[in-house]
Design brief:
This protein is mostly helical and 71 residues long. 62% of the residues lie in helices and 0% in strands. 3% of the residues are buried.
Length: 71
């Protein structure tokens, strides 16, 4: 499925696509641009969203594991 939307991400095997892991680079950029309030906010938001995506995947995996136990 192809899309032009930047909000759609693929997580093959419930892990972020290695070619699209932005957290580390965004964290580095936030540190580099700490003096610029707009840029640091932008890069910190990327880090926050990456952390949220990983947390979602962890919750989904735990939920699936529990579901498999009872089925």
């Amino acid at each position: 499925m192809a899309t032009a939307s930047p909000s759609i991400r693929r997580f093959p095997g419930r892990t972020p696509d290695p070619d699209r892991q932005y957290r580390e680079e965004a964290a580095k950029a936030a540190a580099i641009h700490a003096h610029d309030p707009e840029l640091v906010a932008f890069y910190r938001e990327i880090v926050r969203r990456e952390d949220a995506a990983i947390a979602f995947l962890d919750r989904q995996a735990a939920s699936d594991e529990e579901e498999w136990r009872y089925n």
